[in-house]
Amino acid sequence: MSRSIALLICLLGGLTMLVSPFLPMATEWSNEVTDWFNILAAMAFVLGGGSLLKVQLMRLSARGPGWGYSAVTLLAFIVTLWVGLGKVGVVADPSAPTVAWSGKPDDEGSAFWWIYLYVMTPITSTLFAVLAFYVASAAFRAFRAKNLEATLLLGTAFVILLGRTFAGVVLTGWLPDWASGLRLENLAVTIMDVFNTAGNRAIIIGIALGVAATGIRLLIGLDRSYLGGDA
Amino acid sequence: MSDAIMNEASPQQGKWWIGLFLAIAVLVAIRASIGEGMGRAYVQTDSTSYSSATGDDGRVMWTAVADGTAGSVTIERVLFASAGEYRAAEAATPGQQAIRISWDRTLGLWLAAFFTLAIFSFLMGDNPAYKFTESIVIGVSAGYWMVVGFWAMLVPKLVAQLAPSMVKAWCMPNLDVSAFNPVALIPLGLGIMLLSQLTPLGRHIGRWPLAFVIGTFAGLKMISHVESDIIEQARATMIPLVAFGDDGSFAPWDSVRNILIVGGVLCTLAYFVFSVEHKGAVGRAARVGVWFLMITFGSAFGFTVMGRIALLAARFEFLFIDWLWLIDPKGQRMVATVSAIAGSCSAILNAI
């Protein structure tokens, strides 16, 4: 019974979104359902936070190796939550200066803004920056022009990397005007405009067809894996 | 080291890492003692007064007015100031407080530098500083997104629908809601059911909101993908294979370009058709499609590398400009620092 109702809810939610472009009177329903979806997405963040709390507390109470890091995670989580929900250091918004809580939690000068600027941004951007080393290392080890396909991939990557930087201008800037199409910066533009456009377009169409097929499977109940168990 | 921070590293590795961080600390201390020092943040206070007036629709509107206006409310904001502005203000009025050092932002700057170096240290291997930073970002990210979800979605879209006057008086006076909306009880109920997943018995109760989220998301994505990714992309591919210029003359290069785009899309799609065996014409088309795919992946790889390198450059800029004050593109402290470093170097050389 619980599963049947879940399948019905899934179908109704999906159909509401699907019929809205075709039925003007359904637009309001779809806006309402979109709001519900966004509310549940926000609730999912709360669920994620609760799950993190649960897991870290269990690790902390077990006192296994590295339990100190769980304590650090918990402390960081609780402090961020406290300063964000409590709007610590936030001043009133100019549109309502008499309402103390009217400012945004991430206004300049607030504690939440401080955490975002000095903790979250440097760490996340450095984590992504470090990937530059790993991508370069992996490419050095794995890239071998052993057949036509691998050569195309390798050659295109080099042309794009050189053509989009000053190195491309320095290396091929001497080519005469009649051969200007072979300059690396122009080759990079041609690759992006023609070959990359064609390849990407086919990939996008393929993904969209896959999304549509998966969506239909979910809505009509052929795919029930999200219900868990032996659904 | 105790179990609290070490789980795989040996005591020798721990000593090695401590030695490395001490060496960095000594280098930073030397740098901090040269010239104007390093890593400080300056602030100034912006004070604005606002006065209220009631509009035609009965709403209270607040506008900025001159300081000291009767009945006005003043808001003070602490905003960033540059080192150059601080130096100029100090030169004009020594000991002034209009532009001053912000100790909390200075601490933040040093913490950000520590976190940056700690993440970079992973390139040499796993270590306590990296794990500490990693643990912090996990907690902060979870808290950050919960706070964003709460203030951007839960309060205006849910709480305000259920208790509009309370929300207006508390934090969002300009919100466009007036009365209790009973329909908002549905997402509230679904949300509570979703949160029940945290309890041992909540697995079955949590199915309904999950089904709603999946169904709605599937419907939403089907519409957007079909509209923008199938119809629009197919429309953009329907281009003339024989192109002519504005003056009506034949444009050979544009024609070649269009033929390559149309042919490339069709050949690549042929590669994705798995219900037909890739033999004969289909096989040849699929092979050409693979070439187009390889070129696409190559350009995607090139752009990914460039994006990561740009991020890396941004982190180095932060370390060398904002923290160490070693390079100074805005020309605010370079002259003093360079002359101080040169003076220190010549003093060391003379001593040797």
Individual helix count of chain B:
11
End-to-end C-alpha gap of chain A: 12 Å
E-strand count of chain B: 4
Low-confidence stretches of chain B: none
- How far is it from the N-terminal to the C-terminal residue of chain B, by CA? 40 Å
List unreliable stretches of 5+ residues of chain A. none
If you compute it from the alpha carbons, what radius of gyration of chain B comes out, rounded to the nearest whole angstrom? 31 Å
* Oligomer state of the chains in this structure: heterodimer
The most extensive contact between chains is: A-B, 144 and 136 residues
Classify the secondary structure makeup of chain A into a structural class: mainly alpha
Give the tally of structural domains of chain A.
3
- The percent range for helix content of chain A is over 70%
